[in-house]
Amino acid sequence: MDLTELAIKEAHEGLKKGEFTSVDLTKAYLDKIKKNNKKVNAYLSVTENLALEMAEEADRKIKSGTLEMLTGIPCAIKDAILVEGEKCTAGSKILENYIAPYDATVIKKLKEQGAVILGKTNLDEFAMGSSTENSAFSATKNPHDKTRVAGGSSGGSAAAVAANMAVFALGSDTGGSIRQPASFCGVVGLCPTYGAVSRYGLIAHASSLDQIGPLAKNVEDCKIVFDAIKGKDPLDATSVELGIQNTEFKIKNLRIGVPKEYFAKGLEKEVEEIIREAIKKAKDAGAEIIEISLPSSEYALACYYIIGPSEISANLARFDGIKYGLSEPAENLLDVYLKTRGRGFGVEVKRRIMLGTYSLSSGYYDAYYQKAQEVRELIKQDFKEVFVPPGAGSRSGGKKVDLLFCPVSPFPAFKIGEKTDDPMSMYLADIYTIPLKLAGLPGISVPVGKIKSLPVGLQIIGNHFEEDKIFSIASQIENMVK
Amino acid sequence: MKFVFLNFMLSKDEVKRIAKLARLELTEKEIEKMQKDMSAILDYFDLLKKAPKVKVEAASTKASASRRDEVVSSHNIRDELITAAPCKKDDYIKVKTIL
Lengths: 482, 99
Hints:
- The structure holds 2 protein chains of 2 kinds.
- Helix content of chain A is 39%, strand content 15%.
- By secondary structure, chain A is of the alpha/beta class.
- In chain A, β12 and β13 (454-462) form a beta hairpin.
- In chain A, α5 runs parallel beside α6 (179-185) and α9 crosses α12.
- Chain A has 3 domains: 3-229, Amidase signature (AS) enzymes, CATH 3.90.1300; 251-294 and 386-442 and 455-467, no CATH class; 300-370, no CATH class.
- Chain A has an 11-stranded mixed sheet with strand order 1-3-2-6-8-7-12-13-11-9-10, sandwiched between helices. Chain A has a two-stranded antiparallel ribbon with strand order 4-5.
- Chain B is mainly α.
- In chain B, a hairpin with a 2-residue loop joins β1 (88-89) and β2 (92-93).
- At the A-B interface, α9, α10, α11, α12 and α13 of A face α1, α2, α3 and α4 of B.
């Protein structure tokens, strides 16, 4: 038996029955990482000592009979999430030697369950990018085709799960950074509703959008991890307590919307065929499929690249060469700032800080930042118009829908280097993952097909805090495409 | 998508002014590339001009988006935080003279 192929429940059963220990499981993963990480570059650091300590602790817990679902299960953590006493680089030279002084709330929750942390995964610098090529520590390669990108920014987390170098991983999603790499690498990735999971201890990118979420081998695992990390945290004022989400939804009782704007020019034909086929399967299973319109979709990308960078320019002001991280020697204080930031940040981070500073600067604020906030309201309205209001029964309220089905990305994983010189073409990779973020909605990517060796994910979007509906239907779709 | 013709070109001086506001030291080469890239992106933002007007007052007053001053319990990581500073003396973080 190859222990690294097990999903969470299978591994959990094995641990419970004593077929293997968490130390066995952890060592199997550490061996695999040693053998394969060089080829994929999914991990930036492997926390071997921590992992083995945690595995031994988990084995004691198992012996005493107090195990929980994640006890002894090895996982990978995006290197923008703090794990106490371990390096946290955010994929940036400015934090190359930074040691996290505390645990993020999600890490605390994983530790309470007894999960085992194998290491920290690669990402675009400060999670800004769609390919992991913006990492200061070189790109992650797609395990399905090593000449191609793994997607981003949580590319290392997606690749680690796809290459069986972790049972599951945590990532973060600001504009598509969990769903797009999940789609490219053929794993399941959820971006939860804004507020569903605490961001305390996540290195901030754009605070009105950032959300932590799971990447896993299947929908069931994804739900297990989401349930473990969700909930209100006094240390993140935006977090909320979720009601119990155990309702099972049947696909035949649901109305599924297909947004026509997501099937327009730019979508590759083979991707469209795979997504249409998945929609047909839902229809054959009894779902009512209706075409809907989200008319403000065309503005979403421009809106995002004003709001995101504006928040980035404020959030990244903390990297000043004084409090932590890189510090370039200079004559006076201003030069410390200028040189540290000029040398410590990479190209894309600088570009976004510049765009944000411009959008917020005197004389341009109304035309850019203010306008983008207005457009964000339009995009929220679009989604509000189409979804069944929370609490209302399915298929009530005229032609309102329960969920939306659409592509995650207009194309499968692209070649390494293909888009690095043209930032606009890289930004367009997020065209289907951005709109829901502006509305704070949850979305999942589920693998539904392949173009040759390259996986293609279906995106399922739900109303606020309806992750249970998304998981139910995603799991049924997963079975249909098996 | 290619942006061959730009309606708008950011001047080099404007790039330098923004870089100073953003506290970023850029090389000459970086300034040139930034000028080109930012112009293309800002040109794309023009798309928003045709979006209908809406009121956003309602959005900014939502309870979930507002922040309150809250008392956060102490974490006792004072020493770790000071250790993280690149330049320090005893228990103090050292900075360059400002005046």
